[in-house]
Specification:
- The complex is a heterodimer of chains A (about 425) and B (about 350).
- Chain A is an alpha+beta fold.
- Chain A is built from 16 helices and 15 strands.
- Chain B has about 350 residues and is mainly α.
- Chain B contains 14 helices and 5 strands.
- In chain B, helix 4 (about 130-160) runs antiparallel to helix 11 (about 280-295) and helix 5 (about 165-180) packs across helix 8.
- Chain B folds into 2 domains: about 65-125; about 130-325, Orthogonal Bundle (MetI-like fold), CATH 1.10.3720.10.
- The chains are: A alpha+beta (about 425), B mainly alpha (about 350).
- Chains A and B meet through helix 4, helix 15 and helix 16 of A and loops of B.
């Protein structure tokens, strides 16, 4: 009898909790195929589902190369998940196109986040990143000593002249095949991400950020022309390669082919394991301060989500320092907060990669925050590649400006 | 009789049905959509409503203008010379924000030539990249069509013999065709590598280091040629098989008769083999031409249209614009232009190779 009562009450309780069943939230993520990344994101979801009974998050992972296409296709078919994962510079395009809605989370929770992790469009927060990425000038301490170069810091970076003198010294020594590895083998987003900050340090930009309605003057003004001439000179004068073997990009620095390498924090551990005395120098200052690209993958809420408050609750839950630290430990990214960084061996004070967080904080600049960035990035990539291959600088930049302006006009100003 | 006709007609439609539906759904309908979209400003992703824009997309792609440029004159009215040749003002100073010629705004120099005297005639295009893509595509077709067809015929003649193990040779020649073009392109990117590529190593060894390494895909003057050579190699086996099937339909009695008559090898080829292959030749020419106009995968994998636009092609442009830059109307316009080009060339080929009665 007692046994029966117990069974009955268990059954009733089970029924009760089923009646109060959690609403399902779907989530898309770009990291399919990466085991470590999948493990961390799955851990966050399990923890979140266990921590409350209102929401249940279900994950669907896509390979990174197919992710953006899947979201566009999903949006056209009216079939987006509640929680979206978005690459920082793409966010304004998706927000403008109506795929995403503003993210309602407690502002105080992200007060100490790195600036590049906050996806703000039209004055509203749409997405937030658990990490950021940064680029540095990778070289060896022994190289600096051998070439008798001053070690730059983010507060006193190399000037253009110092940087060119360093390349000259490396080239003159004859010890390396090329003085500088820029990563020209990585076509695609790498060009605007890694090279447009040079242009911004010269004082130019891909588009005029005061209005976002034209590129005239920003991409073909005096500063941009100076950038173009300098950029072309890197290749014409034999400091760097306009076309690079992808294998050299991956292993060239470790093989001693290059004195300096312009590369991201994700490649830093590899460089450190090749040479113990690897150092990560800040970007040179070409007149307007050192600049590097900011913003990586971030989380946001899709526009047609029926439960934006649930999606926001999950994102807020994921912003805990321990998860930030997990991602950093797992895949080497820069944790978004200093407190999380302190929990990661590589990024804690005095850690081998701690400088990256500093560079991201002090010289990180997000790519133009406009829905037109998608096209502008491609136009900039083509212009940079053409100039590297010897095209006329002024004519190429003018053509790029014309194409960007025509696109902005065709889109009625992209809502700016 | 009538009922039998309708019954077999129904069976016929039933058999053709799946193919007709698929072709209608995936070829004809998208094509009609493309024609429609090319007159609008449709975007892949946009909250803005689609508007009818007439021929603006065609104008943007195809607009050309001719400009006569006089050399720079100094204050005394003398032509300024630089290294012994007259110096000209930069074209951008004439096209950009020029109050006299607002119609030239946004146009760029495509090419220029001397018109006798000091003045230079400059051909301006509103979309120079697309013009280069058209020229590159035509270059590709004009080289690939005859060379690939000719090589395939030679191979077909070679393997059309009763020898031991001839099937091995047939398989070897045919192998590149069954490998995905993306894989082939990746492999050839390694072969063409500027420093340690197979081709450079081979040339270096054969010439005892006399030939320096060439950056085949990174140099504007060799990039398109490299892609042409690789494309010919990749698809030659396919056309070889078609030639071979043509060769095997020629009646052996004709060859026997020729042997009895004492015809030379050349005479046999000229008067028996070649006339017997006439229909095959027409087919192969049209197929190669149509395939060559669709050049895309090699470009996408190997060069992305670079360096300096030397390998941009029409189809690559259509996809780059329509999908990469989210400009569906621009991409559709390019597809329609390509359709008109291929259709006219096929009609011309049909007319040239018609049965003369």
């Amino acid at each position: 009898m007692n046994a029966f009562k117990l069974a009955a009450s268990v059954a009733v309780m089970a029924w009760a909790s089923a009646a109060h069943s959690a609403e399902t939230l779907t989530m898309w993520y770009h990291g399919a195929g990466n085991e470590v990344e999948s493990k961390i994101i799955n851990q966050i979801i399990t923890d979140f589902n266990g921590s409350q009974s209102d929401w249940k998050v279900e994950l669907q992972s896509f390979p990174q190369a197919a992710y953006n296409d899947s979201v566009v296709a999903g949006a056209l078919a009216g079939n987006l998940p509640d929680i979206l994962d978005v690459d920082g510079p793409n966010m304004p395009n998706w927000a403008w196109a109506g795929y995403m809605q503003p993210l309602k989370i407690d502002e105080t929770k992200i007060a100490n986040f790195l600036p590049g992790t906050k996806g703000v469009w039209n004055g509203q927060l749409y997405s937030i990143g658990l990490w950021d990425a940064a680029v540095a000038l990778v070289t060896r301490k022994s190289t600096l000593e051998e070439l008798k170069l001053r070690t730059p810091t983010v507060d006193a970076p190399w000037t253009k002249d110092e940087f060119m003198a360093a390349l000259d010294a490396a080239k003159a020594s004859g010890k390396w095949e090329y003085a500088l590895d820029l990563g020209t083998a990585w076509t695609g987003e790498w060009y605007p991400y890694a090279f447009s900050p040079f242009l911004q340090s010269f004082g130019g930009d891909i588009v005029d950020r005061s209005t976002y309605k034209t590129a005239e003057g920003a991409l073909n003004g005096d500063a941009a022309l100076a950038f173009g001439e300098w950029w072309q000179g890197l290749f014409k004068n034999g400091y760097a390669q306009a076309t690079q073997d992808p294998a050299d990009r991956d292993g060239g620095f470790a093989a001693g082919k290059y004195a300096f390498s312009w590369n991201g924090n994700w490649a830093a551990l590899g460089a450190l394991s090749a040479f113990e005395d690897t150092v990560f120098l800040p970007a040179p200052d070409f007149g307007n301060g050192p600049k590097i690209g900011a913003a990586s993958w971030q989380f946001g809420v899709s526009a047609n989500s029926k439960h934006p408050e649930g999606a926001a609750a999950f994102i807020e839950f994921a912003l805990q320092d321990k998860y930030l630290a997990d991602f950093s430990n797992g895949i080497g990214l820069i944790p978004a907060t200093p407190t999380a960084a302190a929990m990661v061996d590589n990024y804690k004070e005095g850690g081998p990669l701690a400088v990256f967080a500093d560079y991201s904080n002090k010289s990180g600049l997000v790519r133009p925050v406009t829905p037109g960035y998608l096209v502008q990035a491609k136009v900039f990539e083509k212009a940079a590649a053409d100039i590297a291959n010897g095209a006329d600088v002024a004519a190429t930049l003018d053509a790029a400006v014309d194409e960007i302006n025509a696109d902005i006009e065709k889109n009625n100003g992209y809502g700016h | 009789m009538a009922s039998r006709f309708t019954v077999s007609n129904r069976t016929g439609w039933l058999m053709a049905g799946p193919a007709v539906l698929l072709i209608a759904g995936f070829v004809i309908l998208p094509f009609l959509l493309a024609v429609g979209l090319s007159f609008t400003n449709q975007r892949l992703v946009s909250p803005n409503p689609t508007e009818f824009v007439g021929l603006a997309n065609y104008n943007q792609l195809l607009d050309l203008a001719l400009l006569t440029v006089e050399p720079l004159k100094d204050d005394a009215g003398q032509t300024v010379l630089k290294d012994g040749v007259p110096e000209y003002p930069p074209i951008r100073s004439l096209t950009r924000n020029n109050p006299d010629r607002p119609d030239l705004n946004g146009m760029r120099e495509w090419f220029s030539f001397s018109s006798g005297g000091d003045a230079r005639l400059v051909v301006l295009a509103r979309d120079v990249v697309f013009m280069k893509a058209i020229v590159n595509t035509f270059t590709f077709v004009i080289v690939v069509a005859p060379v690939q067809a000719g090589l395939a015929l030679c191979l077909a003649l070679l393997i059309n013999q009763r020898l031991k193990g001839i099937n091995i040779f047939r398989a070897i020649y045919f192998m590149p065709v069954v490998v995905s073009i993306v894989v082939v392109s990746l492999l050839w990117r390694l072969i063409y590598d500027g420093q340690s590529g197979l081709l450079n190593n081979l040339l270096g060894t054969l010439s005892f280091g006399m030939i320096p390494p060439i950056d085949w895909l990174g140099n504007p003057s060799t990039a398109l040629g490299s892609i042409i050579a690789m494309s010919i190699w990749q698809a030659v086996g396919f056309h070889m098989v078609i030639w071979l099937s043509g060769l095997q339909t020629i009646s052996p009695t004709l060859y026997e008769a020729a042997a009895i008559e004492g015809a030379s090898k050349w005479q046999v080829f000229r008067y028996i083999t070649w006339p017997g292959l006439r229909n095959t030749a027409v087919l192969i020419l049209i197929v190669i031409t149509m395939q060559a106009f669709g050049l895309f995968a090699q470009i996408d994998v190997m060069t992305n249209g670079g360096p300096l636009d030397s390998t941009h092609t029409i189809v690559f442009q259509a996809i780059e614009r329509g999908y990469g830059k989210q400009d569906i109307s621009g991409g559709s316009t390019i597809s329609v232009i390509l359709f008109v080009i291929v259709l006219s060339i096929s009609l011309i080929q049909r007319w040239l190779t018609r049965e003369k009665s």
